[in-house]
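Support case: acetyl coenzyme *A complex. Customer-provided input:
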Amino acid sequence: MIRSVIAGIGMYVPEQVVTNQDLLKYMDTSDAWIQERTGIQERRYAHRTQETTTTMAVEASRIAIERAGITPQDIDFIVFATLSPDYYFPGCGVLLQRAMKMREIGALDVRNQCSGFVYALSVADQFIRTGTYKNILVVGSEKHSFGLDFTTRGRNVSVIFGDGAGAVVLQPSTEEGRGILSTHLHSDGDSAEILAMYNPGTHANHWKEEKYADFDDAEIGQMFFSHAMIDNGQIYPYMDGPAVFKKAVIKFPEVIMEALQANNLGPADINMLIPHQANLRIAQFVQQKLGLGDHQVYNNIQRYGNTTAASVPIALCEAWQEGRVKPGDLVCLAAFGSGFTWASALLRW
Ligand code: ACO
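Agent response - structure generated as follows:
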C-alpha cells in the first residue's frame, strides 16, 4: 500500500520580534490582556519591503527540500496555502515555482485560511496515493503584518497574528504502517462572514444599500475597492472572536476524534497533537477535553502568534527539531478557521 510520508520539513520566521509591549505604540491594549486572552507574548513581522509571503515560503521550502535529500528541480507539484498572497492573483504557487527555478510543474493555491495547510496536505496526499506524483511541496506562508488595522479599532484581530512559513516535502512510501493514515476535511459556510476580509471582493454587500440603487455598472465597478472602504477600515480582517472561540472548541475535538476513530485509535495513542495555533486557550481546552498530557500537545503561539496557514507546519517543524516527534510516533494535525473550515490529518512519523 502506498502512503505519503513527510520526507523533509522546514520553517522560516522573520528576524523582527514584536512584543505585546511594542504594540502599545499603535493601539490601546496591554501585555496582560493579550497574554490572558490568547497566550501570545510576541510574534514576528516580515521585513517591510524585502520579505513577502513567497520569499518566506522559499526559505522554508529550501530547508524542507534539502532535508528530503532532493533539489527544487525534483519537485513534481506545489500546493501553496495562504490568505495573504503577494498578489490578489496570480497565487503564490507560481511565484514560488519561479523563485525556486523549478520545472514547469503544476502549482495549486489553497484558500482555506487557518486550515489551509491541512487541506493542502490532504490534496497532496491524494496525488501521492494514486501514484501521480513522487515529490510534492506543500507550503503554508503568511505575511499578516502588511494587512492589519494597527489602530485601537482593529486590536482584537491585530494582536493575534504573526508572519512566517512552513513547508514539507511529501513522498510515497510502502513501509508498513508509516505515513499519512487519513485526512478529514469539513466546512460550514453559514458563518463565512464572522471571520473574514470582505474587500476587495465581488460580494456587493455594501452596494445593496438604497443609496447605490441608481449606480450604473461603471460606478459599481469602481467600488470593488473604494476610498470609503479604506476610510471605514473595511479592508481589514473582521472577526467575531467569541463566536469563533465557541465553534472552535467544539470542532477541534470532533475532527481529532474522527481521525482517531477512522483508524481504530484513541486519544491515548497520540504521541503529538499539533493544533493550529489559533489561541492558547483553545488548545488548552482541546487538550483537556481529550484528556491529553502536556507531553502530547505542542504549542508555540506564545512566540509566533497565529500564523494561520503556516502555524501547523511551523509547529510540526519545531516539535520535530526538538526531538518531540520521532520515527514511529502517531502525530495528529488539526485546524479550524475562517469559513468555517476545519480539518485533521493523522500520520505515523
Ligand atoms: N486589548 C485590549 N482590549 C481589547 C483588545 C485588545 N487587543 N481586543 C479587544 N479588547 C476589548 C474589547 O473591546 C472588549 O471591550 P468591552 O468589554 O469594553 O467592549 C473586551 O476586550 C472583550 O472583548 P471580546 O472580543 O469579548 O474579548 P474576548 O474575551 O472574547 O477575547 C479573543 C477576544 C481573544 C479574540 C477571543 O474571543 C478569542 O480568542 N476568540 C477566538 C478567535 C481566535 O482564536 N481567532 C484566532 C484567529 S482565527 C483562527 O485562527 C481560527
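Residues 29, 33-34, 37-38, 114, 155-156, 159-160, 195, 241-242, 244-245, 278-279, 282, 306, 336-337 surround acetyl coenzyme *A (CB under 6 Å).

Case will auto-close in a few days if no follow-up is received.
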